[in-house]
Amino acid sequence: MSRAAPWLPAQEPTPPLPAAAPAAVGDTHAYGISSPSKQGVVMSWGTAGHHALPSRESKVKLVGKPPWTFHTPYQYHTIVKGRYPGVYKGHWYNFEDLVKHVPGANHKGFHTLADAKVAYIIAYALGFVQATPARGFTDIGPPPTIQSMVSTTPSQEDIAAALSQTDSHSVGTTWYTVMKGVRPGVYPCWNVVAEFVTGISTATFRAFLSRADAEAAFEAAQQAREVHQLCADILYIQ
User: 31-67+174-229 has which fold?
Assistant: First the structure.
């Protein structure tokens, strides 16, 4: 495609000197950390994960309890990697079997069909959509009784339209910052992020309610030299 999405990952910088990561805008949690490289309380998960996850001896916990947040049940469900990828409407328990025991299953709920459709199309354009059998099986099994609400093979026009909707808006209500993963950066869609962090135990990422907050967190992690590209097939825990 000739049109590049504006939210594609930034190149990892090389800061001149390491610095302590400031509290990321929108990251309201504090983390108590005990690791070989750092002790005490830090104000971002990027810093906490950077120091704690690579070491088996490390411990990290939330300081204080964040307020509980509730949302109404999602009506639409995007399945990117499962037995039958697509976008489905209804209660999640009707579709959970499509991803149960599927290695690296990738799915997300949405409140609107438009968001669910865009998430699927973006994942399809990036080559992430994959019909995968459950662990221990060689075939994907019988199809669901409820059909996908969108074409599972979007047209080029559909892809271009989906990309245009992510210029300044997230898919749903959340932006995501990947500090450590296959492709660090800021993304508007969890179904994309999942492909960059799933299966990597030392990957660090956070969700934010605005693009500005997500970008501020990524910039803070860059300044602290906490942004690293990881490979999915390498064990980073020491």
Answer: Ribonuclease HI; Chain A (3.40.970)
